[in-house]
Amino acid sequence: MKTSQRILLTALTLFNRHGENGVTSVDIAMELDISPGNLYYHFKGKESMVSALMRMHEKQMQRVLVPNALNSITAEEVMYYLYLLVDSLHVFRFFYRSPADIVEKYPLIEKPRKNILSSLHKQLSQLLATLNNKNVLVASRSDMTLLVDLLSLIITQSCQFDETNSHMDETSQRYHALSLMMVSLLPRLVLSEAQQNSILDALRSHALANVTEHVPQDMFNTKE
Hints:
mainly alpha
């Protein structure tokens, strides 16, 4: 792995663990066991690292937020797709810890961040509309508008809530977010009792193994 990639991955790990504001360039260099000068050769301070990480995040979300991928989704597959969204944002969760503060500190990330949030909102809107059109989601238009807002809020902010109010590990945080969303959606989805029980068992046991087997493959075959 190239040194620049190692620097970014280490910075991402430390930013997620301690918050961007709690990590210095020297901390990153020490974690990598390289000199601050070597780090500076690749990235001229934290601003360039944060900008590079935001570009990585935006590219990642472009592969996940693909409208056409939702055309064949079923009510039973909703949970798996929502987990995919939670997991994708959770990888870069430091961006969502104190969003107003980090955007003020690094204004270059504001536009791509807004693009991600806008695309997420549109994707969730299409997800619910698709299910509603298939008559597997019972919700009025106003209900769906509120549900999209609620899902967006949970996906982007639940990790901050969990880190502040509990001591959950990363896996538990992901499943907590998923559970919060499903407790709102499950009563509205047209599912058999067996399907509902299967979903509830997966949530309780944190056993969402082989996610890609349950999600339409279009979601994973998008181009770079």
